[in-house]
Fold this protein.
Amino acid sequence: MTPNETPLWDRYPGYDALSQQDHWEPATRRVVLDRVYRVPPIRFFSPGEVETLQAVVDTVLPQDDRPSEQRVPIVAYIDEAQHKGEIPGYRYEDMPDERTAWHWGLEGIEQTSLALYRRRFTDLGTDERHAVMARIQKGDPPGQVWQRMPARRFFQSILMAAVARAYYAHPFAWNEIGFGGPAYPRGYYALNHGAREHWEVDEQR
Amino acid sequence: MKLHVHLSPNWVLDEEMREYPTAEPVDAVIVGTGAAGGVMAQRLARYGFSVVALEAGDWADSEEGMVSDERASRELYWMDARVTGGSWPLELGDNNSGKTVGGTTVPYSAFCPRFHPSDLMVRTLDGVAVDWPIRYEELEPYYEQMEREYPVAGPSYFPWGKAHSYPYKPLASSTHGHKLIEGCLKLGIPVVAGGPVGIASGAFGKRPHCIFRGQCHLGCKVGAKHSTLVSHIPDAIRHGAEVRTRCMAFEIAVDDSGRATGVRYYRADSDGAHREEFQPARMVIVAGYAVETPRLLLNSRSSRFPNGLANSSGLVGKFLMTQAAHIAIGRYDDMIRQYKGPPAQVETEEFYETDPARGFARGFAIQSVGPLPIAMANMLISSQGLFGMDLRRAMADYNHYACWGILGELLPDERNYVALADDRDQFGLPVAYVHYNLFENDRKLIEYAVRKAVEIHQAAGAREVMVVEDSAHLIGTCRMGFTPQDSVVDKWCRSWDVPNLFIPDGSCLPTQGAANPALTISAIAARTADYIRSAAARREV
């Protein structure tokens, strides 16, 4: 980032989707405020898995450019979904069930890390972590786990799907991308030319 | 029992719903309450039949049970276990499967075009797949009924297929739709805006009109968008039908003469405990959509029907279809804000019919879509392989994307099917195994259609265009046909094997055209209901 470039998270300066909460109906307000203010505890992953997963999430969806109080607790939401046994309504025939896929996947990431760098994933630098995840995304990483579970499928359909579901469900992410958020019962009136509502903010880049 | 369900902000379904005892047979038990089941329940109740509709999901109260939130809307979808495979495995769950009163119509985007007359005779015209045992003219009056009852907004003159008019004027469209119009105009491609979509362009009964919140896929809290939950089920209940929720049908029972005697199901309490019940009936109607319908039939094995019920042809579960729904993402310099307005607002069917010069049979539509943030992120992840800061940077352009999808006809093939998997669900029942592949005509069609979608973006001034593979809708698996050997049901959706078993849902469609199927499924259900009424009068069911 050059000194004059707008930070990614501040392209809509001062936009705060949460500030509109009085215009949302109670059921949605409850869901979104719980997400922000009542971060669920870790109940599914082991302490070791949480360490790996946090490092993985910091790599595939880094937030270190954001003010620390503006970071989305992605790992907590991934854990909550697995604790509840949430599945997307299907599994691929070449994949184990969702929970097993997570256990195997985190183990596999450590195996790839060891094979490539002889160190745990959590001990790798930023570029090395990125390289490990790129190998997994490409589908040909070293590691015994990946002989029994397709790495690409894990990366895209399990890991990244969960990361996207956690991050882009959060008002902090909505502020970053200029998404209007919940819009019932008020709705939108500015439908033409990409116009903003009176309560939305113009983009600066 | 007394219902209390919000269907829109100011409309509460506050009816005393009739409850039928399980000790006595009812005239009809219907499995499913979606595009087919909801209409069937309403029609049969109005015709004086006693009706119980079993729904695996629950009522979704529009104020309390639906939320304006992409992550928190799981309750509307079929999120139970299934297995997907083949060389082009289909995404199920929130991509195409509802599980709530109103079925998949509750979270669908409500594009409601008709099929073209040619869709029902592709063997005759193009030498591919099969003809339907009915002609467009037989469906037409039911299309007209459904377009008034959903209702459907659209142009006064709709030029494709058999030209016709929509009863409600076009809905306003928003910037992402305007981009599709702009690109089509530059290329001289005819296009329509504001429909055909199942959202009334004015208040309709107790349903207010659209607030352009763009969250049709999360269920319509406004009640503006059609679902059978708001269009047909209230009327069904008023006319004495019972919608029995949290009831997972697992077997259709038959007697020694081979007639269906009712449906066995697991009924769950609000705390999740379930018990087995049996609803006897003089007639059974299966409307569980193209995955759960064949699963129920295949799970209904008996000594008389060892390969599953209604399956003497061996075709239950075969000829599964989906539509190619690849999405072209255009990045524009100007602001789009694609979350505003319904996803379904602009389309062209200019490429719908077979054109021999293109080198493949059948065709496609191009339709606007408006992915919400999580869906958009997944599109960028799967199409571009993005992660890390690259993903966040690409998503920071969320408001600069306009997206449209192809809706391409994929031909029925016996090698695409639904069968039973070894996996079991929460009831211990074998789950559906869904197997899909693309074949030569499909690939050629997709390649051409995607190229066209990309060209339209380029003509509209997109800075960059990306393409995501996707599929939409589930069709086939209990096809209707001409003989007991070539099909599962006859032209009235009646099982060739079990005379009092009807399958009027998306399963029965022999081909799927390049039109979104809900309206056609409802039209077929309404037609089947009329047949049942007249057949019952003749004592033929």
Observations:
- Strands of chain A lie at 91-92.
- The helical segments of chain A are 26-37, 47-60, 74-83, 98-117, 126-138, 145-148, 151-167, 171-177.
- The mean pLDDT of chain A is 96.
